[in-house]
Amino acid sequence: MDPASLALAVVGTLDLCVTYGKKLINLCREQRNLESDLAEIILAIEGSLLKTETQLASLRALWDTIPSTLQEHYGDALTILQLRITGAFENVQYTVKFIHNATHLHQKVRAVYLKRRLNRVVTDLDDWKRRFDPSWYLITRVASSDIDAALNSKSPKDPSTMRLARMREAVNQAKSNGAPHQNSIFVSDALFKRERAPIAGTSRTSITSYRHGTQLVLLDRTDYTAKMPRVMGKTNVCDLAKLLLHVEPATFSLLKCEGVIEVPGETGTQFDFVFNIPKGLSSPHTLRSLLLEGSRCSLSKRFQLAKQLARSVMFVHATNFVHKNIRPDTVVVFADETGSIGPSFLIGFERIRKADGPTESVGDLEWEKNLYRHPVRQGLVPEEFFLMQHDIYSLGVCLLEVALWHSFVQINGGVSVPSSELPISDALEDKDRRRGAFAIKRQLVAIAKDQLPQLVGDTYTALVTACLCCLDKSDDNTLGDQRDLMDANGIGIGVRYIENILGKIEDLCA
Q1: Residue 361's pLDDT is what?
Q2: Which has the closest alpha carbon to 199: 218, 214, 216?
Q3: Could you give the 3-state DSSP secondary structure of residue 374?
Q4: Which residues does the UniProt record annotate as the domain Protein kinase (predicted)?
Q5: Are 227 and 360 in contact (CB under 8 A)?
Q6: What is the DSSP letter of 499?
Q7: In this structure, are strands 205-209 and 321-322 parallel, antiparallel, or unpaired?
Q8: Which residue(s) pair with 354 in the sheet?
Q9: Of 207, 192, 441, 175, residue with least CA distance to 347
Q10: Regarding the domain delimited by 174-509, which CATH topology (the fold level of the hierarchy) does it fall under?
């Protein structure tokens, strides 16, 4: 569809969403007196629709400044929203007529029918919002003063739009390279207790609390090499921390950053990200330690962990950063209030940098880290500039392990060794490291295609192979050719990732 036709279609869709949203709110309000416990559900629907209406108004104001790739994606998302809202109105309307005519039924029974229908409306609206958010925050990457002007206008804003505005403000501050802004995110180590409890399986992550309080925080230390200029490392850390200050953990699957501690050392300066631990969460473990323990984990829990990790990768990309270190050791999983496996969060920002910034050309030969790196990003001198697809490849290896619920890296006498289920000894011993790296990649793809269908189904299997083959010229690469995804803002790869990876994982969790 050409841009003009798409714009007209979207305007019509937006109007229908708002019109039927208001009709649905009025219809629900008329049923409040049927039963007292309906009021809370109706209030939730009203709140959700009003927030959505406000966000749609912001989208309408931003439309002409949004890249065409993102416009097309939003057009599809809005069509789905229109179908959900109009469908919800028609279904609630039908249910209301039914219960009003069913005079032979007790009022409480009629209220149960309506309650079920209204709960479904809440679920559908929340699900749409959850799926829409990742692409909404991609606007962070679009360089446009018009977007900033629209976001900073005095018109009403929903929480997502306010968060987007704050994130863009942080991005703009970073681009200005203003020294006064850099210092504001740094905090003193004296604010925290000296006792630090390391998270098992990590050497750079620990738990502590404020000296004058009980609020727990997670400290995550960088691992910059001596060749990384101190100013560059400090700038990257500062800019990321200011963005992570505005994240919503339940939405982003990233912890909120409260500040950064500068840690001078003999081999150079490192930095501790100070992450707030959400209330109700306890007993942090790395995903690696859970995989090594081999404790039971239901399929639905594994899908949730996969979704959370996929979302965190998306939001790191939305902030215009690449992680470069995604593996089970850099995913922390908390226990929830019942003691079960709870939410997970991506940490391990050891060598974080901006997606468009200079990359370190220094690597390492640690096979247990190289296992999660694309073959062209392995070795002492990686061949290629780091792309989002390299993070997606790392995600694919992690998703494979989550599906198998088994760690490819085992610990034997304090030494990391390959799992017996990962026969890569010959590849590791290959003197041609590049050839060996691609042999390991082929082995991972083979394991996925051979073992995953009967364990997690065809959809999850295809997701894993799509991640592992995201830079291949093959049918397994559903993201498309890298040359077709090149754009100034990194929007193309973000949209394809949402549509072909994240969105399908969300479907599995629905």
Answers
A1: 55
A2: 218
A3: coil
A4: 192-510
A5: yes
A6: I
A7: unpaired
A8: 321
A9: 207
A10: Transferase(Phosphotransferase); domain 1 (1.10.510)
Q: Residue 67 has which token pair?
A: 């890249």
Burial readout 344-365 (b: 16 or more C-beta within 10 A, e: otherwise): bbbbbbbbbbbbeeebbeebee
The full length of the chain comes to 510
Q: Which two tokens stand for residue 378?
A: 């392995």
Per-residue pLDDT of 48-82, as tens digits, reads: 999 999 999 999 999 999 999 999 999 999 999 99
Q: Of 234, 225, 232, nearest to 268 (Cα)?
A: 225
Structure tokens at 487: 């754009």
Q: How far apart are CA 358 and CA 356, in angstroms?
A: 7
Going through 222-328 in order, the beta strands assigned E by DSSP cover 257-263, 270-276, 282-286, 321-322
> 225 is written with which tokens?
């090499």
Q: How far is CA 280 from CA 208, 439, 498, in A?
A: 16, 44, 30
Q: Which residue has the tokens 């032979």?
A: 104
Q: What is the pLDDT of residues 236-258, one digit of tens each?
A: 899 999 999 999 999 999 999 99
User: What does the domain layout of the chain look like in residue ranges?
Assistant: 3-132, 174-509
- Residue 349 CA to residue 369 CA, distance in Å, equals 14
Q: Which two tokens stand for residue 160?
A: 């997502």
Amino acid at 180: P
